[in-house]
Amino acid sequence: GVLALDYVENASGTATITVRATDAGTPGLYAETSFLVTVSAVNDTPTASTIDPLTVDEDAANTEINLYNFFADVETADADLVYSVTSNTNEALVTTSIASGVLALDYVENASGTATITVRATDAGTPGLYAETSFLVTANAVNDTPTITEGDLVTVPMSKNGLPNPFSLTL
Known about the structure:
Number of helices: 0
Order of helices and strands: EEEEEEEEEEE
Radius of gyration: 34 Å
Largest sheet: 4 strands, mixed
Distance between the termini: 94 Å
Structural class: mainly beta
Strand order of the largest sheet: 4-11-10-7
Oligomer: single chain
Number of strands: 11
Helix content: under 10%
Strand content: 35-45%
Shape: rod-shaped
C-alpha cells in the first residue's frame, strides 16, 4: 500500500504519524511505526486588488481610501502591513499621505489634470514581500468666478466740468 499525506493550505507545524499494518490471521498480528512530519512556514506574497479610477473636480475635498479593502496577506494582518506610495506621476495635482492604512489624497488648489498613483503593501516576513496596485486620479478643470482684490486706492482727478477724467482698470 501507499500512504499519501494531504497537507492543509497555509498551515505549518509538526505532526507524529503512526502507521499500523495488520495481517489477515486470527488473531490479527500487527506491526507499527511512527514518524514525524514537519511542514515549514513559507512567507506568502500579499495580494492586491484594483482601486477604481477616481474623478473629482478641481479644489475637491480630500479623498480617503481605506487600503485594508485592497490588500491582503495570509500571515500578516491588514494593520501590520506597511503601506507606502511608490509613485505619483503628478504631485502638482495631488499629494498623498498614509496613516493607519488610510491613503489621503490632497488636491492642489486650482490644479486640473491626471496622476497615476501606485500604492504598495509590504508584509512582515523576512524578507518582506509586497504587492502593488496603481490607479488613475483625474481632477476636472472648473471655471472659477473671477475675483477682485482690493489694492491701493487710486485718486481719479476730476475734469473742469466736474466729471472724472477717463482712466483704465485692469483685472
